[in-house]
Specification:
Distance between the termini of chain A: 45 Å
Structural class of chain A: mainly alpha
Order of helices and strands of chain A: HHH
Shape of chain B: globular
Oligomer: heterodimer
Number of domains of chain B: 2
Number of helices of chain A: 3
Shape of chain A: elongated
Helix content of chain B: 55-70%
Mean pLDDT of chain A: 87
Distance between the termini of chain B: 57 Å
Strand order of the largest sheet of chain B: 1-2
Radius of gyration of chain B: 27 Å
Chain lengths: ~100, ~850
């Protein structure tokens, strides 16, 4: 069961970061109607924190036994890749419209 | 990623046996074993036997057969649509009827065909593939079937009487709100589909538990058949994907019935909330449908190519990625509603990214075919049809993921073409392949050659003739769901061509059905394991008996050709041979390594699922008739029947350990630490928690995004409600503490404290402001109702435990319902405290 939980860490982290940044964006647009410099900085910071959150987990995750598939680590890489790719728009798009 | 071959071939059998030391049972004569097992596991005779059947073999087949009937009905409706669109001024259907027909076509194909078909396939196939005798909760399987059937019949009956849903299969508000859809049409959809979804959630719970807890000893997770991985992903998605739709449907039905304004912008609501909730379900739904189909592909392709699967690990990782990414795509159905550009970019990127794990699977299958020796049997025809069709659908999906293109093609026939390429390519072709592949196991018969191949070609030509052209029609601007197009002569020939080929497609499906019927009725007897497959599903007699295996396979049986282990298993050399105690016994194993944990006794044939689903059906019908007070009363028999249901799990007979294999004595489930029931409750709570999260999402969305008027100042002061808050929280925390005692007195105390908490909820409820005034008040009322319902159930569960003490069914070794009661109490306390914190933090009550 622990192994299954470890498998879910990476994608779950992505989902949490994705929803967090999406929610933050909604909050900024809802409150101020535009993503100004401060708003963008907050979004980029949230994205960066999300990416950074993967790094200690990648280091701490024990290596899989030899000859077995390291699905937990694969899950982490999936989550990290998805976090980088799906949220990179925080750096280039701007509009709340 | 390491290339792991098909299950059981990762490591030699002796290595597995070293992992799980289970000695072989002594060989017995096969026939007496078979007779004894048949006596215990068989359905009752005649029609009564059909009503009381709980066997996964019977119900899985029945699910699939019923789904196929609904597929035929949905197909007939599509013919009516195409007949109407064959000419620009079609007078075949009037607009109202046309609206009902396209709505019902989509709803039937999604909710009454695709989902139940995959449920049926999983229910029928998983126990056979995992090496067990039935699903974890046989009565729940039956309940799910009856709910599905009754819900489907309600919707069909509405169509016959001309009051079917007519707002599209996605039921967008405000079109589906009471103002613009005043009849019962929308209610039929909301109540009917929610009724059917009981079946989906039930199936998801038991598929999850069966895969995690009932695998053959030694079948570790990373070595189980890929189909099981796909179904585990599917069931997890169903547990998380369906609750948002259930939440949305409940809110919309409450709005329609009682005028609580969740989606009305004039009173603080927002129609977009419905779209979010619907597509939070709706997009994962596509993958819920696709994953089982991909699962059967992953099982069939290696066998039909005489090789092993390429990239087992990569495929499992791809499933993991798909399961999660599919929940980050829902907004791509809403690209045109005015969402901020940055949010569009998030979801566009996620929609493009999801093509990667999909492609990993497609390349793994192609690679498997490349390294093997493909044999062009009939299932392979459909597999090739899948490749051609699904890849094209996937590519148009990537096109639609790009926002500027999406804006152009949105709501046109291009999208209709895309979704049919994905759903027929990604689900129907694999299912047709699967049916022809597993028909010998279902019927014991060999197919009659020729007709199936002809049917395939007719279907393939008919399909592409119909839908490829529809891409062009869409690109030329034809919107979806219109019934006439008198001012657009440029669409005439395209539509006529689509209509003609659609009839070819229908003829193909009819030939396919005829082929299956001929095989089932006139086919010659097939030999066992006709494909030479290395999986357990073929290591049994054909057609498969209800009990699947005379003795349960162990590590030494895994990874070998089915033909080699049929006889040892039939002679009782596996675990739990026969049915010497006259009970339906299965082996429960641990989640990770599948080591034997305990023996569970499954319930026998019973009409209770039918009776309970009938009681729920009465409730649904009374709601449809707007007899809300009576509908509330109709919940009393439902509650009573649930009590009877749970009473049926009381310990019966000897509770001594069972010798599952020579020298291996296992406790029966009444004395086990973590039973299947507790695992099932945990899975259910995942779904329940998602429903709760959906309500909180609605609260957050409407608080932040809604353009409607702000809520008026509340007339209820904090001083008025804080005592009720405090009483509620204190009563629940104390009840949770009482659970730790594990004594009769604690059960009674838990009941009393939960009743006190219920009183606090009622106290809160009477202080709530009119929920029709503003969304804020409506959401507060809904959350209060949600908590009240859970507290009521917690009180009922505590009372049930107290009753178990009274009957002497609980002892230090036999925990009875305590663990489940405790789990529910924890959940109830948690959601209550979260709700109170959210409401206070939000400053809703001033």
């Amino acid at each position: 069961m622990k192994w299954l939980g470890a498998v879910l860490i990476g994608p779950s982290l992505w989902f949490a970061v994705f929803l967090g940044v999406y929610g933050l964006h909604g909050l900024i647009c809802g409150q101020w109607g535009a993503v100004d410099t401060g708003g963008r900085a907050a979004l980029i910071a949230a994205w960066g924190l999300g990416i950074a959150a993967f790094l200690p987990v990648l280091r701490l995750l024990p290596a899989a036994p030899e000859h077995s598939i390291d699905l937990p680590r694969a899950g982490l890489w999936i989550g990290l890749g998805a976090t980088v790719f799906t949220l990179f728009p925080v750096t280039i798009t701007s509009s709340c419209g | 990623m390491t290339d792991i071959p098909s299950p059981g071939q990762t490591a030699p059998a002796d290595t597995r046996a070293a992992t799980v030391h289970i000695p072989a049972s002594p060989a017995q004569r096969a026939l007496p074993l078979h007779r004894l097992l048949s006596q215990v596991w068989a359905n009752d005779d005649g029609l009564w036997g059909q009503i009381t059947a709980v066997s996964h073999t019977t119900l899985g087949l029945r699910f699939m057969a019923t789904a196929f009937v609904f597929f035929a009905i949905g197909g007939i409706l599509s013919m009516l649509i195409r007949a109407q669109l064959a000419t620009p001024d079609g007078a075949f259907l009037d607009t109202e009827l046309y609206n009902q027909i396209f709505t019902m076509h989509g709803s039937i194909m999604m909710f009454l065909f695709a989902i139940p078909m995959l449920e049926g396939l999983g229910i029928w196939l998983l126990p056979k593939m995992l090496g067990t005798r039935d699903m974890a909760f046989p009565r729940l399987t039956a309940l799910g079937y009856w709910c599905y059937l009754f819900g489907g019949l309600i919707m069909l009956t509405a169509l016959l009487f001309g009051v079917a849903p007519h707002d599209g299969w996605f039921m967008y508000t405000p079109l589906s709100s009471a103002e613009f859809s005043p009849g019962i049409n929308a209610d039929v959809w909301l109540l009917g589909v929610t009724f059917v979804e009981i079946s989906a959630v039930a199936a998801a719970v038991e598929i999850t538990v069966t895969i995690l807890r009932q695998r053959a000893p030694g079948m570790r997770l990373m070595e189980m058949p890929l189909f099981a991985w796909y179904m585990l992903g599917t069931s997890a998605m169903m547990l998380v994907g369906f609750p948002p739709l259930i939440a949305g449907s409940v809110l919309l039905e409450i709005e329609r019935a009682f005028d609580w304004p969740f989606f009305d912008p004039a009173r603080g609501g927002d129609p977009l909330l419905w779209q979010h909730l619907f597509w939070l379900f709706g997009h994962p739904e596509v993958y819920i449908i696709f994953l089982p189909a991909a699962g059967v592909m992953s099982m069939m392709i290696p066998v039909l190519c005489r090789t092993t699967i390429l990239g087992y690990g990569a495929i499992v990782a791809a499933i993991l990625a798909l399961v999660f990414l599919s929940f980050g795509l829902w907004v791509h159905h809403m690209f045109t509603v005015g969402i901020p550009h940055m949010a569009l970019a998030f979801f566009s990127a996620a929609s493009v990214l999801v093509a990667v794990p999909t492609a990993v699977q497609v390349f793994a299958w192609i690679g498997t075919m490349w390294k093997g020796h493909p044999q062009l049997h009939l299932p392979m025809y459909h597999i090739l049809g899948f490749f051609l069709t699904f890849v094209m659908g996937g590519l148009t999906g990537v096109m639609l993921a790009i926002v500027p293109f999406n804006w152009q093609a949105h709501d046109t026939a291009f999208v209709t073409a895309h979704l049919h390429y994905v759903l027929i390519g990604g689900f129907v072709f694999p299912m047709m392949a699967a049916a022809t592949y597993w028909m010998p196991l279902m019927t014991g018969k060999r197919r009659i050659k020729g007709l199936g191949e002809a049917a395939f070609w007719v279907i393939l030509i008919g399909f592409h003739g119909t839908f490829f052209i529809m891409h062009l029609t869409g690109l030329m601007g034809m919107p979806r769901r219109i019934d006439v197009y008198p001012d657009n002569p440029e669409w005439i020939w395209l539509n006529l061509t689509s209509s003609i080929f659609s009839f070819v497609l229908t003829i193909g499906f009819a030939l396919y059905a005829l082929d299956l019927i001929l095989q089932a009725t006139l086919g010659k007897r097939e030999s066992r394991d006709p494909w030479g497959a290395p999986t357990l599903d073929w290591a049994m007699p054909i057609p498969s008996p209800n009990y699947n295996f005379a003795s349960l396979p162990t590590a030494r049986h895994l990874g070998r050709d089915a033909g080699d282990i049929i006889v040892p298993l039939a002679r009782g050399e596996g675990m739990l041979p026969g049915a010497p105690r006259g009970r339906r016994e299965i082996l429960v194993t641990s989640v990770g390594d599948a080591t034997p944990d305990h023996v569970a006794m499954l319930p026998g044939n019973t009409a209770l699922p039918l009776v309970l689903s009938s009681a729920i059906c009465v409730f649904v019908l009374l709601m449809l008739a707007s007899l809300y007070a009576l509908a509330g009363l109709a919940l009393l028999p439902v509650a009573a029947l649930i009590w009877v249901w749970v009473r049926g799990m009381a310990p019966q007979g000897a509770m001594t350990p069972v010798e599952a294999a020579p020298g291996l004595h296992l406790p029966i489930h009444h004395r086990a630490t973590t039973t299947l029931g507790q695992s099932g409750l945990m899975a259910f709570l995942v779904a329940n928690g998602t429903l709760f999260s959906s309500l909180l999402f609605g609260l957050a969305f409407l608080s932040v995004v809604t353009p409607g008027p702000a809520a008026p100042p509340s007339a209820v002061s904090a001083a008025q409600v804080l005592p009720a808050f405090a009483l509620l929280a204190a009563a629940l925390v104390l009840a949770l503490g009482a659970m730790g005692w594990r004594r009769a007195g604690a059960a009674w105390a838990g009941t009393a404290l939960n009743l006190a908490a219920l009183g606090a909820v009622l106290w809160l409820a009477v202080q709530l402001e009119n929920p029709t005034a503003h969304t804020r008040d409506a959401l507060r009322a809904v959350l209060t109702g949600y908590i009240g319902l859970h507290v009521l159930v917690a009180a009922g569960m505590s009372a049930f435990v107290a009753d178990q003490y009274r009957r002497g069914e609980i002892s230090p070794e036999v925990p009875g319902a305590w663990p489940s009661c405790n789990l529910w109490q924890r959940y109830t306390t948690a959601v209550t405290l979260i709700t109170l914190a959210v409401v206070i933090a939000q400053g809703v009550i001033t």
